[in-house]
Design brief:
By secondary structure, the chain is of the alpha/beta class. 52% of the residues lie in helices and 8% in strands. The chain folds into 2 domains: 88 residues, Glutaredoxin; 104 residues, Glutathione S-transferase Yfyf (Class Pi), Chain A, domain 2, CATH 1.20.1050. Strands 1-3-2-4-5 form a 5-stranded mixed β-sheet, covered by helices on one side. It binds glutathione. Exhibits glutathione-dependent thiol transferase activity. Has high dehydroascorbate reductase activity and may contribute to the recycling of ascorbic acid. Participates in the biotransformation of inorganic arsenic and reduces monomethylarsonic acid (MMA).
Amino acid sequence: MPTQKAYKTGSTAPEPSAPGVLRLISMRFCPFAHRTRLVLAAKGIDYETVNVCTKNKPEWFFAINPLAKVPTLQHDGKVVYESLVCNEYLDRVFPGRKLLPEEPLEKARIGMLQAIWDAKILPNYMKTKRTEGKERQDAFKAFKEVLSFLEKSLTDSGKLFFGGDQPGFLDYSIWPFVERFETTLHGDLKLPQAEFPKVLAWKTAMFERPEVKTCMFDTATYTSVSADYDPDFGLGA
Ligand code: GSH
């Protein structure tokens, strides 16, 4: 069971990790740290967790990462932060299944889908969370329009996952948000099976993955946490 202790403002810094021990500075419900926990689990990398409170950050965190954001990795005296940077670092440095493709165009494809996710899909989803009535329906329509890029990518590749026959880099970077979408995308905001057969099959398959199960919280937890903590899942913070 991962630790639930979280270091807050005024706390004394934890002892440095033992030599050779990878440390993840995290916050339990952070979707960005979740990205990195998924990669750690998928690659079977051993690590220890130090949780910080991202609302009342401990002063010592700024000395490690000037942005003081999670996830942050400490590894053999080195520091790596920003979730996608952390994930690429882990993928390059640690053995195990490779998550990023070597082939340049294939790697570019993943990067472009990530950009669509960041610039279009996630913001439109966030709008459905924040709005009501007609505005919400319009946001949901816009969300579906941009989600169709993911549907097309899976259709074109003929694979179950964005990484191919197994989840890869993009699967793990978008999944934490999709897991949280369960709090919103039901009732009149349910994704239609006829429009999104591939995305919905991907979602079902992702829920079955052991690394996803290890890292997840249930929808009830996300609902209560997002009401109390960050309706925007930390975005724009
Ligand atoms: N771009 C960063 C990444 O991809 O790692 C975003 C990370 C992020 O915003 N994490 C939140 C955080 O540390 C917690 S969910 N917030 C504290 C802050 O924004 O100062």
